[in-house]
Amino acid sequence: MRRKLVAGNWKMHGSHTTNAELLSGIIGSGPYGCDVAVCVPFPYLSETAVTLARSQIRWGAQDCSKHEQGAYTGEVSVGMLVEFGCRYVIVGHSERRQFHAEGDQLVADKAKAALSRGVTPIVCVGETLAQREAGETESVVKRQLSAVIHTLGHCAGEMVVAYEPVWAIGTGRTATPEQAQAVHALLRAQLRAATPQADAMKILYGGSVKPDNASTLFGQADIDGGLIGGASLKASDFVAICRAAG
Ligand code: 13P
């Protein structure tokens, strides 16, 4: 059985004070029966690393550069993340695809840069409401994942995939467990065709996961945990979601 992963995506939220409270609430309620991680804004990586150093909670970033170093103002390399002990980096989040015009190949290159330094990329895929209503869900998520699979080659089995339907992010409108499972099963089948590790890989669901819907979502055959936005900012909610995962 795959061990579940619950990762908080803090997005652009936090402060020294609220981070300390949140992290101590998460640490204080452990240990957990699943892997737990928080993906924090870059400026808070250092304090997060110090706070979580002796805990079982892992930490990561929300984006990275595809480049190793150079004249790329504002970018952060995976090598820098490694210096802070990052274990994960989210790539291809829909907010980056939408607001920063990130395309499939750039996302794939970022995932490759992460893996080349031993950081696990959490690769996000997901359709918009218009695409779902046009019956394009399958073709969109397959196209997004396919770019990453091809770029990673024999390392594809080392990524974590997150299915995040754009229409469910921050809207309070969660995909039903059946809707999510259907897409997760498609993604698993695509991974099986690409790597012998497919059945050991984690496919997370993200999009309005809350304490009251987490256990039903996580009970689906191909849902291996969650990527949590809003509910990861409140310790009691995040802890409840982690408990629902194991
Ligand atoms: P919400 O949980 O706030 O819907 O956000 C989901 C998400 O985008 C996680 O990456």
Task: Sum this structure up briefly.
The protein is an alpha/beta fold and 246 residues long. Helices cover 41% and strands 15% of the residues.
**How helical, in percent, are the residues?**
40-55%
Structural class: alpha/beta
Which segments are poorly predicted (pLDDT under 50) over 5 or more consecutive residues? none
CATH superfamily: Aldolase class I
Distance between the termini: 12 Å
| SSE run | EHEHEHEHHEHHEHEHEH
Structure summary, number of beta strands? 8
Alpha carbon gyration radius:
17 Å
Strand content: 5-15%
In DSSP terms, counting alpha (H) and pi (I) runs of 4 or more, how many helices?
10
Based on the coordinates given, report the CATH architecture: Alpha-Beta Barrel
Main sheet properties? 8 strands, parallel, barrel
The CATH topology: TIM Barrel
- Mean pLDDT equals 97
- Which molecules are bound besides the chains? 1,3-dihydroxyacetonephosphate
Q: What is the domain tally?
A: 1
- Placed side by side, the strands forming the largest sheet appear as 1-2-3-4-5-6-7-8
Shape estimate: globular
Provide tags for this entry.
alpha/beta, globular, TIM Barrel, 41% helix, binds 1,3-dihydroxyacetonephosphate, 246 residues, 15% strand
Can you offer a commentary on this structure?
The protein has a single domain, classed as Alpha-Beta Barrel (TIM Barrel), CATH 3.20.20. The termini are close together. The longest helix is centred in the middle third of the chain and has 16 residues, at 137-152. The chain contains ten helices and eight strands. The protein has 246 residues and is α/β, with parallel strands linked by helices. The chain has helices spanning 16-28, 45-52, 78-83, 94-99, 104-116, 129-133, 137-152, 177-192, 211-218, 235-244; strands at residues 5-9, 35-39, 58-61, 88-91, 120-125, 160-163, 203-206, 225-228. Helix 1 (16-28) runs parallel beside helix 2 (45-52) and helix 1 runs parallel beside helix 10 (235-244). Helix 1 (16-28) links the parallel strand 1 (5-9) and strand 2 (35-39). The chain binds 1,3-dihydroxyacetonephosphate.
